[in-house]
Amino acid sequence: MSQAALQIVPKTASQTKRRPIRFRGRSFMALVLAPEPPADEWLAELDQLTARSPGFFGGRPVVLDLSAMRPTPRAMAALLAELEARKVRVIGVEGVAPTHFEGAHAHLAMPIGGRAAGDLSAPEAPARKATSLVIDQPVRSGQTISFPDGDVTICGSVASGAEVVAAGSIHVYGALRGRAIAGSAGDAKARIFCRKLDAELLAIDGVYMTTDELDPALKGKPALARLDGETLRVAALD
């Protein structure tokens, strides 16, 4: 019995079909930390924040704005090491000279990563951008709702361990037990409204208040949070 030889013939380029190169856009919501001198006092204040709210950073990306500190490259490296030791994940640095990004810190010259935003296509006529987001269900523990273009309304409760971040105001038509961060794009006029206050953290335009700083008389009551200069005020809603 003879055996036929098995011959493998490679496909030619014309026979191999490859998918075209695809480009995808990505966007992200990052916290911005803006340290102020002296650095050791600022780090001590940061430690106090994380002690009051241990899950505040929770691995989320952070952009470091060093324009108020104007550190030397060595001082910037020391500050980054301190933040790394505190498990603060810095993805980018701004407010320093380009020479600060040489060597080990080259990757921090521009924020990277983020949430997938879908495929990019050829530019078309600009669509009208939504300025409010309505969530018609409760926000569960571990969830983060981020809206960088305006107000967020939650038609339900925000559980402990959940987070709502909005460029504008936040309205919670239920219990607010998690974290609410309004005015995230620098809007000092933003407000936080809730039907039942029991928040882990409230913040407006970077000014924050943790649960142990809330007036006990307000807990469980309808409440409004707003900025008064550099002070976060929380009052009962009639």
Automatic annotation (TrEMBL):
Pfam families: MinC_C, MinC_N. GO terms for biological process: cell morphogenesis; division septum assembly; regulation of cell division; regulation of cell septum assembly. Residues 21-88 form the Septum formation inhibitor MinC N-terminal domain. Keywords: Cell cycle, Cell division, Septation. Residues 134-234 form the Septum formation inhibitor MinC C-terminal domain. Transmembrane segments: none annotated. InterPro entries: CAP/MinC_C, MinC, MinC_C_sf, MinC_N, Septum_form_inhib_MinC_C. Belongs to the MinC family. Cell division inhibitor that blocks the formation of polar Z ring septums. Rapidly oscillates between the poles of the cell to destabilize FtsZ filaments that have formed before they mature into polar Z rings. Prevents FtsZ polymerization. Interacts with MinD and FtsZ. This is Probable septum site-determining protein MinC.
